Amino acid sequence: MSDVSFTLELVGDVSAFTESVQDEMTLAIATQAGVNQSAVTITITSGSVILDVAIRVPSSAATTVQSTMAAVTSTPSGATTMLSAVSGVNITVAAVTTQPVVAPLEGTVSATGGLDGGAIFGIIIGVLALCACLAVGILWKLNKLPAKLQLKLNKVAPAPRVEDASIVELPAKSAAKKKRKKSSGDGSD
To answer: Average pLDDT of the chain?
Structure first.
């Protein structure tokens, strides 16, 4: 999408340009540009009466609309004629302050069909941030894994040391069974 924008200086007082007058002005400009009224945005400010116009159009149609509006606003009388259908106020254009120009919108497809520089930069930064987050997550997970294994190993009882094996006592039942085996083995021979 692109904006075709221009500025006109009008004769009169800002208070005369009510909401209904501004609505008629957008309709007159849209009709002249050959676009829907919702594509036209106007701003009226004081300092005489300054009319800023922006017409949002597909990038493919921007040069056509720009050429049409440049022809209409080439003179103040031509711009006055364009706005003559507006009722409620007599509009006279004192000067065409800025001729119609095409300005591509940020983050949109350019006239050549590709993304503009800002959109490409944003995509690159987003992909790099995602990769960095994934790398940090993987490294963090890998560093946590050995600690978990070490905790499991610490829970297993250590094997007795060789020097401690001589003082290990057998439970009473085991000792009694050994005595029975010895006595039963002596009597049966």
So the answer is: 78
